Amino acid sequence: MPDMVEPSSSEDFVDKYYSYIFLKIVIIVGLVITVFLVAGYAITIGAGDVTMMETYNYIFHHIIGTQYEYRSPDWFKDFAIWNIRAPRVFAAIIAGFGLAVCGCVMQSITKNPLADPYTTGISSGAVFGVSIGMVFGFSLGTDFGNLGLMFNAFLFGLIPAIFIIIVASNSGRSAATIVLAGIAITYIFSSLSTITMMFADESTIKKAYLWQLGTMERVTVDMLPIMFFGVLACSIAVYVFSRQLNLLYLGTGSASTLGLDVSTFRSIMVIIVALLTSTIISFTGVIGFVGLVAPHIMRQFISSDNRFLIPAAGLLGGAFILICDTIGRSPTLGWDIPVGVVMSFIGAPLFLWIIIRSKKGAI
Amino acid sequence: MEGFDGFVHERKRYIFRKWLFITICAVVTIVAIILEIGSGKYDITFSESLDLFIKHLQGITPQDAATKLADSVVWGRVPRAIGAIGIGAILGMCGCAMQSSMKNPLADPYLTGIASGASLGVALVVIMGISVAAADSYDLAIMANAFVFALIPASVMVFFTLVKRNISTSGVMLVGIAVMFFFTAITTMLKYVASDSALADIYYWNVGTINNINWSNYLFILGFGLACLLVLQYFSRQLNILTLNDENAQTLGVDPRKVRTYLLIVVSLFTAIAVSYTGTIGFVGLVGPHVCRMFLGSDNKYLIPASAMSGAMILLAADCLAKNLTMGGLPVGVITSLVGGPLFLFLLIKQKRNIW
Fold it and tell me: What is the pLDDT of residues A343-354, one digit of tens each?
């Protein structure tokens, strides 16, 4: 808490506290507006002319249920915006939001700045699920094809979490042990994926590789509600627990003294993170960086209070993936650059710059 | 068991555990060396191989052509064993030093972005034909590029510690990760324009192999391994002090920032050397030190040599398994993860104390 000066009286203290909160709320509102504006702009990109205002207009009308005459110009524009462009934009926001929220949670429960949504091994599990889906045609879902791969990614992404919960449910375990269990599981699943890939031909290897890079392309309008409500429900669940997450900063001992059942709480959090990340990963593939970095950047501006950090980091993550995806698919570049690559190119220097500029030693 | 007796009992148990661990490591390593020399893809029986090896050691040269050939095959396996020990030891020690100095269990020798830098260097040679050294041989160009590019992320980290004096350990690590993401992004873009065979080359380089170690370079690796051990052992006391918080370390006369920077440089150099010979072999440098911590606690005076031993043991044993179980079909990195991963998980679940 940077601006906490010695308060002279209790009113002074209350004032300070409100101004402290006010600043954070301003930042969060600013981020909401940013996401809204960038989303509007992102939808205008593509074939056919639509202005930003038109975009908002069409989306608003679609939501309130306006019907257009079949194949009229309005109908075409509405169709293009709602069915082709908006899914990708919304998917980017939802994915970024969810990953950044998971990053906050993982960094809090493991007390490790290097933790990200994939620390528990979710990505390696999902990649393995997709690999065996592609190579052997093995699917846990009913029908095969893209949907079968998604089922595989989702369900195999949850397997590592089961191991983590076995480890975390013992009350004597430190946060580091949980992290290490995650690492061990990551190694096991990635070696299994490598073995699976040995049975694959070159085109399958390429397909699997592209799946890992992460993209918003695969999300269609009928998948969006599942993704949206999955991420929303999990994020609300996380937010409800944000005070308890704050307690974990004090250390396991102090947190239990204050009435928190640390091992149960950690297990619940691991389950929520696993569900959230698996949902996202099954639609978009593995997208790194944002889940790790968005919470750290927001900590610079908002401190580590999870009540504010979680929504702020989530919004930043959403805006960030959206911007990078928009740049990556912009027609001037000529070809689609994967969102993860754009993210690293822009995000890494930006992050280094923020570290250099930060006044606190906090980062 | 209370008071002094309890203390003595604890101490005895600790020393027993330490010796047990060292004995296990030594036994496994020796068994692995024998297996490594005694087995391979050629049709020479185990006892024959050992016989030839011992005869060679005694200086008895074989007479007929067939035995001569067999002798050269068996003798050719020796540098590989030595190399595996050297590389495993370097990775284990460097991992241990990184974890202790950064106070983070997730740290490993590649924390400084070495793997991403080296991959980029290799991709540049394989895809674009760009090399830092005007080397005539392709392999040498790859090695030189891997080494030089591996050091770039570490230089950025050192630069940050010099420019920004109040940077925290997590700050330094995050700098490394940011650079790593940046380099990986460049490599990804390069891979887009690469041919399939170039992609396969890069992939195999990334998985890591100790096939490249032979009679011409095993001495370098052994030398570097010993040098690494000496340097890190010299730092072991400072490393112990670094596990306190930074103010306390300063009170004890250790400048944490300086020591961390030195260690960063040392670890990066030795890891870059290892990587340029073998590609990126994961798991050993992260898990080796942790297994040692489970048995030995966190005194770096013992941890550094023990990590070297366990690293050497893991890599050599994995190479033996790879050679014998899958006839060399699986890369050593896959075996370490596949066998070592569950074993490590089991140890984690069974252990009573927390290692961090």
Answer: 999 999 999 988
Question: Which residues of chain B does A177 touch, with a Cβ-Cβ cutoff of 8 Å?
Answer: 348, 351, 354-356
Q: Is the predicted pLDDT of residue B332 greater than 80, yes or no?
A: yes
Taking the C-alpha atoms of residue A356 and residue B174, their distance in angstroms, rounded to an integer, is: 12
Total-model pTM: 0.88
Mean pLDDT of chain A, nearest integer: 86
Task: For chain B, positions 109-168, list CB contacts with chain A under 8 A.
Answer: 156, 160, 163-164, 166-168
Q: Per CATH, which fold does A95-357 belong to?
A: ABC transporter involved in vitamin B12 uptake, BtuC (1.10.3470)
Sequence letter at residue A59: I
Q: Which residues in A lie closer than 8 A to residue B333 (C-beta atoms)?
A: 191, 194
CB contact set of A164 (below 8 Å; sequence gap of 6+): A120, A121, A178, A181, A182, A185, A270, A274
Write phi, then psi, for B107 (nearest 5 degrees).
Answer: -70, 145
pLDDT digits (tens, 9 = 90+) for A270-301: 999 999 999 999 999 999 899 999 999 998 88
First CA to last CA distance, chain A: 13
Q: How far is B303 from chain A (nearest CA, A)?
A: 18
Q: List CB contacts (< 8 A) between B334 and chain A.
A: 191, 194-195
Query: What are the tokens at B131?
Result: 């090399």
How far is B199 from B190, CA to CA, in rounded Å? 10
Q: Return the exposure string of A289-323: e unless at least 16 CB atoms fall within 10 Å of the residue's CB, then b.
A: bbbbbbbbbbbbbbbbbbebbbbbbbbbbbbbbbb
In angstroms, what separates the C-alpha of A356 from chain B's closest C-alpha?
Answer: 7
Helix extents (H) in B164-283: 169-192, 196-207, 218-234, 236-242, 246-251, 256-278
Map out the domains of chain A as residue ranges. 95-357
pLDDT band at A1 (very low <50, low <70, confident <90, very high): very low
Chain A hits for B355, CB-CB cut-off 8 Å, are 174, 176-177
Nearest CA in chain B to A174: B354
Judged by a CB distance cut-off of 8 A, whether residue B352 touches chain A is yes
Which domains occur in chain B, in start order? Answer: 3-350 (1.10.3470.10)
pLDDT of the residue at A29: 95
**Could A348 and B188 be called an inter-chain contact, meaning their C-beta atoms sit closer than 8 Å?**
no
Task: Grade residue B1 by pLDDT with cuts at 50, 70 and 90.
Answer: very low
